[in-house]
Every structure is written in C-alpha cells, then in structure tokens.
Amino acid sequence: GNSVTQMEGPVTLSEEAFLTINCTYTATGYPSLFWYVQYPGEGLQLLLKATKADDKGSNKGFEATYRKETTSFHLEKGSVQVSDSAVYFCALTFQGGSEKLVFGKGTKLTVNP
Amino acid sequence: NAGVTQTPKFQVLKTGQSMTLQCAQDMNHEYMSWYRQDPGMGLRLIHYSVGAGITDQGEVPNGYNVSRSTTEDFPLRLLSAAPSQTSVYFCASSSFGRGDPSYEQYFGPGTRLTVT
C-alpha cells in the first residue's frame, strides 16, 4: 500500500540553525507530495507541495524537492526561527480520483532562541 | 470566508454516550473528510465524502457514522463512545481534485474529545 515515513522527532534546534526533516514514500504510480504544518493548538495548513518528479516546492523559506529516484521529499530550511516551532507532516495523494491524503506520523520541531 | 469550522472545540463523554461532531465549510468544496490525530500515529482518515449524498470509509471507520446532506456540512457521529476514541478530530475540505493532483486540503481547528 501507499505510505509515508518521516524521521522521528522531536527535533530541537537553536535559532538560525539549518533544518532537515526527512520524508520518504512508498507508492504505486506517481503521487503528489505535500508538507503540512501544525502550529500549537491549531489545525493543519499546507506549507508546500510538488506534483511531479524534480519539482521543488517552496514557501516561507522552506523547500522540498520531489526525488523520484530516491522516493523522497525532504524538507529543508536554511535558518530556522522560534516561530517555526510546530509539527510538520509529510503527505501524499494521487490524481485520477483518489483524493485521500496519506500522512506520515509527524515531526515535532522546537526552535530555541 | 470562515473556511472550515468545527464545533465543539472540547468535549468529554462517558463510555456509551453518543454525540455528533459538527463540521461546516463555506468554500463550496465538494470533498470533505474526517481525520483523527493520535500521538505517534499522525492523521488517519475516518470517513470522506466526494459530494452531497456520497460518503465512503477511510482507514479507521469503525465506531463512526457520517452523512452528507448538503455541500456545506459533514457531521461525524459517535454512536456509543469508547475510551479508544479519545483523540483530536479534524475535518478538512477541498475542491474536487479529479485530474488535478495539486489541490490543497483546508483543515478546521479540531475537536479534542475525551472518553472516560
């Protein structure tokens, strides 16, 4: 079946550190890939997405590149801020009628000043 | 637009009680879904709907019922609550993505349910 595996957290960084959160997927076909972010006490919101191989999604200084050869979609940010503290979810879905999102388990990030 | 709204924000139930979690969206989205979020489990799909009058089961449907009588509303019913249903519940909606894999799902703020 289709699945998403994220690096387990929690991840604790100092402000301005470099962030990488690994995400790999298993899927039949060619999924679309997403990163969602959940700030404390809130629902999820889309951070970035990529719909085909070699696409790079970017938003708010975060980036992720759809790597078909390694089935990966790692999230990166060059310099994190305290306000980036949240839980990050990698997810996939398919075109062609299946709108169901498959989520990874989430990675909690804490950024200290 | 209010987006996706959920009520209540918090609820405590006793085992065996029933209740309905409400979800509404004002974006005219065809697709709506319910997820539960448990520590270390990520989000798991309970039920979903691709339009009024059409619902289907997700990954963890047991113990939950849904209906979709209007485009706007997608309530989730717990017929006989169990402690295993203690969780945070999120409703989400999106425009119908058939043929377009880049759609975004919009999430509500969640309902925190405790069953004692």
Percent range of helical residues of chain B: under 10%
Structural class of chain A: mainly beta
Number of strands of chain B: 11
- Unreliable spans of chain A: none
Mean pLDDT score of chain B, rounded? Answer: 91
- Biggest pleated-sheet summary of chain A: 6 strands, mixed
Q: Topology as H/E string of chain A? A: EEEEEEEEEEEE
Low-confidence stretches of chain B: none
Biggest interface in this structure? A-B, 23 and 30 residues
The span between the termini of chain B is 36 Å
- The count of β-strands of chain A is 12
User: Order of helices and strands of chain B, N to C?
Assistant: EEEEEEEEEEE
Structural class of chain B: mainly beta
Question: How many DSSP helices of chain B?
Answer: 0
Write the layout of secondary structure elements.
The complex is a heterodimer of chains A (113) and B (116).
Chain A: E1 3-6, E2 11-14, E3 19-21, E4 23-26, E5 32-38, E6 44-50, E7 56-59, E8 62-65, E9 75-77, E10 86-93, E11 102-103, E12 107-112
Parallel strand pairs in A: 2-12
Antiparallel strand pairs in A: 1-4, 3-9, 5-6, 5-10, 7-8, 8-9, 10-11, 10-12
Chain B: E1 4-7, E2 10-13, E3 19-25, E4 31-38, E5 42-51, E6 54-57, E7 64-66, E8 76-78, E9 87-94, E10 106-107, E11 111-115
Structure in words:
The model of chain A has no long low-confidence stretch (mean pLDDT 91). Chain A is built from no helices and 12 strands. In chain A, strands 2, 5, 6, 10, 11 and 12 form a 6-stranded mixed sheet that branches. Chain A has strands at residues 3-6, 11-14, 19-21, 23-26, 32-38, 44-50, 56-59, 62-65, 75-77, 86-93, 102-103, 107-112. Chain B is mostly beta strands and 116 residues long. Helix content of chain B is 0%, strand content 50%. In chain B, strands 2, 4, 5, 6, 9, 10 and 11 form a 7-stranded mixed sheet that branches. In chain B, a hairpin with a 2-residue loop joins β5 (42-51) and β6 (54-57).
